[in-house]
Amino acid sequence: MASVILESIFLKRSQQKKKTSPLNFKKRLFLLTESKLSYYEYDFERGRRGSKKGSVDIEKITCVETVVPEHNPPPERQVPRKGEDCNNMEQIFIIERFPYPFQVVYDEGPLYVFSPTEELRRRWIHQLKSVIRYNSDLVQKYHPCFWIDGQYLCCSQTAKNAMGCQILESRNGSLKVGRSHRKTKKPLPPTPEEDQVGASSSIRCPPGPAPSTAGEMKKVVALYNYLPMNAQDLQLQKGEEYLILEESHLPWWKARDKNGREGYIPSNYVTETSNSLEIFEWYSKNITRSQAEQLLKQEGKDGGFIVRDSTSKTGKYTVSVYAKSSVDPQGMIRHYVVCCTPQNQYYLAEKHVFNTIPELITYHQHNSAGLISRLKYPVSQHQRSAPSTAGLGYGSWEIDPKDLTFLKELGTGQFGVVKYGKWRGQYNVAIKMIREGSMSEDEFIDEAKVMMNLSHEKLVQLYGVCTKQHPIFIITEYMANGCLLNFLKEPRRRFQPAELLEMCKDVCEAMEYLESKQFLHRDLAARNCLVNEQGIVKVSDFGLSRYVLDDEYTSSMGSKFPVRWSPPEVLLYSKFSSKSDVWAFGKSVMTWRWGAASATAASMP
What we know:
- ATP binds at residue 432.
- Residues 176-211 are annotated as: Disordered.
- Residues 215-275 form the SH3 domain.
- Keywords: ATP-binding, Kinase, Metal-binding, Nucleotide-binding, Phosphoprotein, SH2 domain, SH3 domain, Transferase, Tyrosine-protein kinase, Zinc, Zinc-finger.
- By secondary structure, the chain is an alpha+beta fold.
- It folds into 4 domains: 6-200, Pleckstrin-homology domain (PH domain)/Phosphotyrosine-binding domain (PTB) (PH-domain like, Roll), CATH 2.30.29; 219-277, Roll (SH3 type barrels); 282-378, SHC Adaptor Protein, CATH 3.30.505.10; 484-603, Transferase(Phosphotransferase), domain 1, CATH 1.10.510.10.
- It contains 9 helices and 31 strands.
- Strands 4-3-2-1-7-6-5 form a 7-stranded antiparallel beta sheet, covered by helices on one side.
- α7 runs antiparallel to α9.
- The protein is globular and about 85 Å long.
- The termini are far apart.
- 33% of the residues are buried.
- Mean pLDDT is 77; it is low at 85-94, 174-212, 547-560 and 596-605.
């Protein structure tokens, strides 16, 4: 099966009808691979793909562009007004509005697709242009308006495959300079009728992405060292700069190092050079004022400091400094906003200005210059250990069982036994050995390819699967402190409200990411949240509940869900959305708070 590049729920307009009506618009699951754009029916109750309804060969696509929105469209295709509730616009199960149209033009005419969000439309157009960039029949003109009632609204031509009436303002299918596999076509001269259309029409589409040149390529800096795991990977050296050649295979980017070597790198191991503060251990991006104060007090070192994003002034930075005090045994903390002059120079004290923030920090590491202390000890929010990669090397989702070493059993879950082990003798992994009959295996294997591309610092990373033997294995990131439910119940631990709040924040970040990727968890609970060595909580088993064959997860309508954590609409109608995940999160927080309180009470004499 070809690797899926993108997968989304869109509204599709029928291609067979001259007259359009509400019956001509259907919700379909669209899948993009290197060779085909396919669309399927989708079972919203069970959350699974239905029968295939059609496909377009990538090599037959001649143009991908936006379409001027309809005049006075029905509510389902209207852009929501300011203040209107649009929380469920990016969900994969319950999507009510599709206001952003685009067209995929091929030999049979235009395929009109409506996206729930502008960002999702932009991402699909960009990716489609990338996969068609070497097609031999790319056009230089297109129709910016819909074909309705037997004609194009922009030029009144009646043939569906008629030549476009407006010249593309950017190249159709973004090509890299010097990498073309064909000769670039010159645009055809306009006919007198087209000149007239162009003069009378005010329709102009925004310019598409321009071809990249070496000077325009994105430059990144490596935050961590990375050793290649397979032949396609490129080694990263912390602090070195790299040129990004291709970003279409998130979360892996194709890059080039200073010696001209090319290969794939994990995108979460680098940052753009324009935001290179992340390479410094004194910088903590996502941290609040109170969290900074707590970390500095825990460290308790005179001159301890953190540089963070200002929470009160967007776009600015704050330096938080701790100093010991004879008056207050807990010491004192001051927060200094990094100011900027009209000449874009930075300062904490007006007499000492610098071109960059690192230069400013270096100066104040040797001179207090008005601060309560010079900056002596950088304090980090977390240990600067390298994050997990999405898979064990680029494109490696099927793992050879011979590369796995089993070290000890961690426990037994709803899918089977979970063991701690090593991959190739050096990388810690958790290995879930799926009990036969506990999971719908064929469907899960297809879904695993999509789940592999989900990568976030607060998600337990899926590394790959072993499917060529039984039982099948699911290989994930290893979390040393086990599940959150047991972690909270340990008598020796006493959790402060701030620590519990931080756990909630970790889970919120993970769930926000899943929602942005149109992915539902469906089984969020403390047992499915794991804790790593640094005490960071990560969400695991996202989406797996769909494949459980246990009766506890099966409703009368056939869908699978955890009853005790499910909201009324799931129990009554088997309808899932991000709102049902929010309900489960609320129930989980109550469990965590009770579990922490119970553990504290049990430890008291």
